[in-house]
Design goal:
125 residues; mainly alpha; Helix Hairpins; 3 helices; flat
C-alpha cells in the first residue's frame, strides 16, 4: 500500500513539473550567423561522439554482464599491471579529446577574430 501511495505521489510531482516548464528541446537552436551555425555543427558532432562512446561502453557492459557472469563459471582475467591495456585506454580518450579540442579552438578563434570589424569606434581624439 505504501508503495502505491509513493508511486501516485511521484507521478503527481512528474505531472506538476511537466506543466510548469517551457517547451523543452534536446538540441541547441540552429543559429542565423555563419559562426553560430558552425558552432551548432560542432556541438552536434560532439554530441554524436558522446552518444557513440556511451553506446559502445553500454554494449560492452551488457556483454560482460551476460558472458562473464559467475553462474557460467567465468574466471577473472589477470589485467592488473598490463601496460598495453593501460596505454590503450589512456590513449583513445586522449585522441578523442584532441579531436574535439582542435575544431573547438578554431571556432573560438573565429568568434574573437577582430581583423575585419563591422564598425570602428573612435574615442574622439
Amino acid at each position: 500500500m505504501l508503495r502505491l501511495v509513493t508511486y501516485i505521489v511521484s507521478l503527481g510531482f512528474v505531472f506538476a513539473a511537466k506543466t510548469g516548464r517551457a517547451a523543452y528541446t534536446l538540441k541547441m537552436p540552429y543559429g542565423v550567423t555563419p559562426i553560430s551555425q558552425r558552432i551548432y555543427h560542432l556541438h552536434m558532432a560532439a554530441f554524436y561522439v558522446s552518444c557513440a562512446m556511451g553506446a559502445i561502453v553500454f554494449i560492452i557492459l551488457i556483454y560482460s554482464l551476460f558472458r562473464l557472469r559467475k553462474s557460467r563459471g567465468a574466471q577473472p582475467a589477470k589485467v592488473h599491471g598490463n601496460l598495453v591495456v593501460e596505454m590503450i585506454w589512456t590513449t583513445i580518450p586522449f585522441l578523442i579529446l584532441i579531436g574535439l579540442a582542435i575544431p573547438a579552438t578554431k571556432r573560438l578563434s573565429d568568434i574573437h577574430d577582430t581583423t575585419r570589424p563591422d564598425i570602428t569606434i573612435n574615442s574622439g581624439n
